[in-house]
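Form 12-C: Joint structure prediction
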Amino acid sequence: MTGDSLLLGAVAYDPKVVAIWTGFRHWLSEHDLPFDYVLYSHYERQVEDLVAGRIHVAWNSPLAWVRALRLATSAGRTVRPLVMRDTDRDLTSVVVVRADSGIAHVSDLDGRSVGTGAVDSPQATLIPLAYLAALGVKVSPRRFDVGVGLHGDHIGGERDAARALLAGEVDAAIMLDGNHLTFSREGVLPPGRTRILAQTGPYDHCTMSVVDLAPAALVDRFGALLRGMSYDDAALRPLLDLEGLTRWVPGRTDGYRALEAAVELFGFYGPAGEQGMPDYSP
Amino acid sequence: MTEDRVDLAGLGLDRGGHLLLRRALAPLPYGSRLRVYGYDPGLRVHLPAWCRAEGHRVESPEPDSAPGPVAVVVRGEGRDGRWSGAHRAGSGRRGEVEKSPPARWGLAARGAALEEGGPEPYFDLDDRDLVWAKVAPQLYAHAAARQWNPDTAVDWDEPFAIPPDIEAAVVQVMTYLVENEQAALIVPARFLGRIHPHFREVVQLLAVQVADEARHMEVFTRRALLHGQALGSSTVGGRASLFTLLEESDFALSSFLLSVLGEGSFVNLLGFLVTHAPDPVTRRVAWLAMQDERRHVLFGVSHLAEQSAVDPRLRDRLRAAIERRSDALRDTAGLNADVFDALLLLSAGSWRPEAIEAGYAHVQRLQHTMDEGRRRRLERLGFPADEAAALSALHTRNFM
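Section 2 - Result
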């Protein structure tokens, strides 16, 4: 019985994940897809299990995707992106400074302290630090490690970095563009007190990853059902709101180049997907 | 081709600018383009982030297009689907109610546009015929307009002097009234949470009814303790009678026993006190409570009369209810003898035999008036006169 189901892995970065996937499971079952899910406490075990075929699909962070690719290549397997949320495309990160700091150009950050998100946050640590490095700016990162292993899904580190900026504890803070808007609305970043100094290029976020060991017919049906999910459907709408999308769109891989480069630069993962950061323990 | 445009001036999306964007995007067809102008320093970062979350797409203008728009927003379907299956939860207008409002309407304002889906709270009293009365909106308006302040509606300092025995009789009657009003508060309060909120005016009316009883308890207690320290007595028979009211879980039957029969008799009792009480404070508190109780009776009679018009079998159930209650109370003593004697004494006003005789006649007339009133109301519910007389005779000797 259970062997005939498509099995998805997801990371429990928040209690709402249970509501989301229990709801989707119910809806998918009603649409004749035998479906089940397992939850992980962090992304590393999830991608290892994906490539080992213990789960069929993984709702992956961008960093988990990068590692899945490396693990799969090394194991002689293939992984591919199935779908992503409409909200996963073309994100950017910003570097924020205090308005009165006198820091006018990115190069002024040279030698300064920069508050980042968790060690494994693509948007608030890896991509923007690589972006600064590519501009030749050597900063002194100060990490706000909240939710290590969740690959930046937890917004807490970014918020702490923003607070530290206002408190004068760091010279700059890094955050996702959307989180900058959120923090401004919340009043964490009061109007006029900070200034956006720099912005990375666009990159993509989460992706539904499939391993070649997964049953093809079930995977095809899963992809078709996800892409057919409509925000008009009252049964789905609360789940889509919780998951933060209005529709699922086809997966793509070219939005992960900046993160690939950052992983390479910092040696976050080795070529075979081995963990390369000595102080990273999810 | 002309493109729509919106100018946010210096307003950022972190300070309400999204309102202008929403307003500009709303009437546009999907796929159409909106040029966004503005000079808030965060706008270039916030606009794409906002559009991404809202399901719209952003095209950046050509770099050399300054002083052109910050960006061009391509309208997506976004979250419009939220309202695709929406419908109105009936009418918001006063007194316009549906026969069977669905459970999902329960927590919405009546007449609001409801997003499809959501919780379906169960209100078992969800049929117009079970709870509604055409007069409910007017009665509620009347009730709301006539709320009085217990502190100022009565001149508590008005001087009067009555003999200690007569004062004790007043205290006993007040004690009895408090006990009854307490039950009259609990009974509608228990039904309030069971009535579908679609029947708003009924819920409001019962809520005010509960508040009425709260005030009555207060003024009767205050009168009882005006010149003394202790209340009168409470008998098993009196409490047993009230307990049968609390036990009734059927709204129609409860309304029948409490309002039509009980509070109806109570109005007569309060009228008796208005006429015969020995002091101005007692007369005043009785008069105030009587105005409210009349409204309670009117609602009970009205909604049961309407219900019995559409459900001829209702009268059988009402009859059974009154008989059942009479059976349940058969072995109890009925009205607190202290209350009966107190009514007699306070209306007599003294221990002189001829005064006592007059008082006795007053109390007898009160019981006769109560019986007449019950029969009249039973006939209004469609009972033939002879049956109304028989049923009225079965009513609890405790009055309520």
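Section 3 - Comments
Residues 280-310 of chain B form the longest helix (31 residues). Chain B touches chain A through 27 residues (CB under 8 Å).
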